[in-house]
Amino acid sequence: MEIRDGAQSPISNPQSPFFMHPSAEKVATAARELGLAVDIVEFAQTTRTAQEAADAIGCTVAQIVKSLCFEVAGTATMALVSGVNQLDERKLAGLCGVGRKQVQRASADAVKAATGFTIGGVPPFGHVSPLPIFVDEDLLPFEVVWAAAGTPFAVFAVAPADLLRVCGGTAVDLKKG
């Protein structure tokens, strides 16, 4: 993992270099169970938004994976979208075989119930229940992308091909425009 000059320094716990927030630990465990080695980086400042995460890490906003949860015809559905893109809900509806009006942003409570994580820290895998997952094809050209690791202060780097494999998602065109 490389954090560019000008980026924020990750935090560390001087009492225990292995201390990790319990939600971030859940993500680390899920990654191991999926055969993915990740280094979770926790920051003192928030990485809740794509811009905040990119600023903290020192990468481009396009390399940030936004985990967006929607209710599609009553089913929680995850869209992993490049930080620079807006999701086109019509495209998501078409991919799910429903009309646009059957696609709505999930409430914070629905996100927590479907994933086990709070908005701003939802990882791309390790959810409490299996979800249909669609991955923005604009993430695929990068050597590495950065995703939330269970809290609004934790992230991890992953190769897009590995992300696609471990989340069981489908790479598709999701961006508006």
Major sheet size, sense and barrel closure: 8 strands, mixed
Question: Can you identify the CATH superfamily?
Answer: YbaK/aminoacyl-tRNA synthetase-associated domain
Number of helices: 5
In CATH, the topology is named YbaK protein
Mean pLDDT: 91
Number of domains: 1
- Class by SSE composition: alpha/beta
Structure description:
The chain is an alpha/beta fold. It has one domain: YbaK/aminoacyl-tRNA synthetase-associated domain (YbaK protein, Alpha-Beta Complex), CATH 3.90.960. It contains five helices and eight strands. It has helices at 22-33, 50-57, 89-96, 108-115, 160-167, and strands spanning 40-42, 64-72, 75-82, 103-105, 133-136, 145-148, 154-158, 170-172. Strands 1, 2, 3, 4, 5, 6, 7 and 8 form an eight-stranded mixed beta sheet that branches. A hairpin with a 2-residue loop joins strand 2 (64-72) and strand 3. The termini are far apart.
Summarize the structure.
By secondary structure, this protein is an alpha/beta fold.
List strands and helices in order, with pairings.
Layout: H1 22-33, E1 40-42, H2 50-57, E2 64-72, E3 75-82, H3 89-96, E4 103-105, H4 108-115, E5 133-136, E6 145-148, E7 154-158, H5 160-167, E8 170-172
